[in-house]
Design goal:
two-stranded antiparallel sheet; single chain; 140 residues; mainly alpha; 2 strands
Length: 140
């Protein structure tokens, strides 16, 4: 009646073959590309901004110091006079003193200092001996 036996149907089916390629990549999240625009559409804006921040000359020239963000979204700035406060000066002095404490003196300098002291002591000893000799000669 036109019905095929079940055995023939199984023989004509092909076995399952998985698709080619690495499927493990399809399950990983894609990483966001590195943005070098700093939110600006200009190319290289981020690198220019980073250079401007890291340049100490531009920071001193502006004389504005950013303190934070206001509640309205703007930046709070403070004018600096260009002079250091007393606390900053004292902190720098203390740092210099600490550096000077741990700075070793070269051995050559120590040797020169000891030689100068020995020569000075020797000279004064010779002068004292000459005075004693003169006094003894006058006494005779």
């Amino acid at each position: 009646m036109g019905l095929k036996p079940k055995d023939e149907k199984k023989k004509t089916e092909k076995p399952y073959v998985p698709p080619m390629g690495d499927l493990s990549k399809s399950f990983q999240q894609t990483k966001a590309p590195l943005m070098l625009t700093n939110g600006s559409s200009a190319p290289g804006a981020a690198s220019a901004y980073a250079r401007a921040i890291s340049n100490p000359h531009t920071q001193q020239a502006s004389q504005l110091r950013t303190m934070g963000t206001s509640i309205f979204g703007g930046r709070l700035t403070q004018m600096t006079s260009g002079y250091k406060t007393q606390a900053e000066l004292e902190r720098e002095r203390d740092e210099k003193k600490k550096e000077a404490e741990f700075r070793p003196v070269p051995t050559e300098w120590k040797v020169e200092q000891m030689e100068k002291k020995l020569n000075a002591n020797h000279d004064s000893y010779i002068k004292q001996l000459e005075q004693i000799r003169e006094q003894e000669l006058k006494a005779k």
